[in-house]
C-alpha cells in the first residue's frame, strides 16, 4: 500500500503568530512533525501543504512542499480543503496520513503503529485518541473516556475524495498517552512542550 503523509502548515495563526515556525529548543515546531514522518518505515512520501513562502523555503530542505492556493488558505478554510488539494496534486497513493504540526510529541513509532493497525485491521480509517477522565461504572469497573488528540488521521484516498470525511463509519482508535497527545494552541502549551524534551 502506498501512503502519502500530508502536513498542513498555514502561515497565519491567531493565538501564536507564525506558530509553525516558532522555535522550540533547536528547531521550528513543524520540524518535529517532518522528522517523525521521515522516520516512518511505512510512509512513501511526505508533503507539506502551505500558503507561506518562508515555511515553503524551510521545508523544501527536507521534503516535498505544495503551494496552497489562496482560496483554500483563508481563516474559514478547512483541513479537508488542503487534503483534497494535496491528494489531487499527488495522485496514485492508496491512503494518506494527516499529521498536524501542532502535535510535536507524536513520533515515528506512533505513526508506524497506527499505520500497521490501518493496514492489518478491517477498517476504513484510524484516528488517534487518549484516555481521559477515568471513572467507575455502575458495576465498579474502570471506564475511560477517549478524546481525539488531532495527532494522527489515516484513511483511504478514494474514500476521502468521494465523501470529504476523515472519520468513517468503520473507524478504529489508536490510543496514545495523554502526555504525547499535547496539542500546541497557546504559548503555555509551547512552554510545556519545551520542558518535556
How would you characterize this protein structure?
There is one protein chain. This protein has about 200 residues and is an alpha/beta fold. The chain has a single domain (about 5-195), classed as Spore Coat Polysaccharide Biosynthesis Protein SpsA, Chain A (Alpha-Beta Complex), CATH 3.90.550.10. About 30% of the residues lie in helices and about 30% in strands. The chain starts with a strand and ends with a helix. Helix 2 links the parallel strand 4 and strand 5. The strands form two sheets. A seven-stranded mixed β-sheet has the order 5-4-1-6-8-7-9, with helices on both faces. It has a two-stranded antiparallel ribbon with strand order 2-3.
Which tags fit this structure?
197 residues; 30% helix; Spore Coat Polysaccharide Biosynthesis Protein SpsA, Chain A; seven-stranded mixed sheet; alpha/beta; two-stranded antiparallel ribbon; single chain
Amino acid at each position: 500500500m502506498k501512503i502519502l503523509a500530508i502536513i498542513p502548515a498555514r502561515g497565519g495563526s491567531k493565538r501564536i503568530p507564525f506558530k509553525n515556525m516558532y522555535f522550540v529548543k533547536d528547531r521550528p515546531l513543524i520540524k518535529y512533525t517532518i522528522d517523525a514522518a521521515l522516520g516512518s518505515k511505512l510512509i512513501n512520501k511526505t508533503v507539506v501543504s502551505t500558503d507561506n513562502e518562508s515555511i515553503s523555503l524551510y521545508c523544501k530542505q527536507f521534503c516535498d512542499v505544495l503551494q496552497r492556493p489562496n482560496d483554500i488558505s483563508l481563516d474559514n478554510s478547512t483541513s479537508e480543503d488542503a487534503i483534497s488539494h494535496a491528494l489531487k496534486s499527488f495522485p496514485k497513493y492508496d491512503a494518506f496520513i494527516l499529521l498536524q504540526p501542532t502535535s510535536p510529541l507524536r513520533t515515528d513509532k506512533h505513526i508506524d503503529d497506527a499505520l500497521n493497525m490501518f493496514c492489518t485491521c478491517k477498517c476504513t480509517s484510524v484516528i488517534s485518541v487518549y484516555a481521559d477522565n477515568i471513572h467507575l461504572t455502575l458495576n465498579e469497573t474502570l471506564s475511560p473516556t477517549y478524546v481525539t488528540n488531532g495527532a494522527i488521521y489515516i484513511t483511504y484516498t478514494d474514500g476521502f475524495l468521494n465523501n470529504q470525511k476523515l472519520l468513517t463509519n468503520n473507524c478504529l482508535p489508536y490510543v496514545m498517552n495523554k502526555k504525547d497527545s499535547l496539542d500546541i494552541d497557546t504559548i503555555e502549551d509551547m512552554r510545556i512542550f519545551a520542558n518535556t524534551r
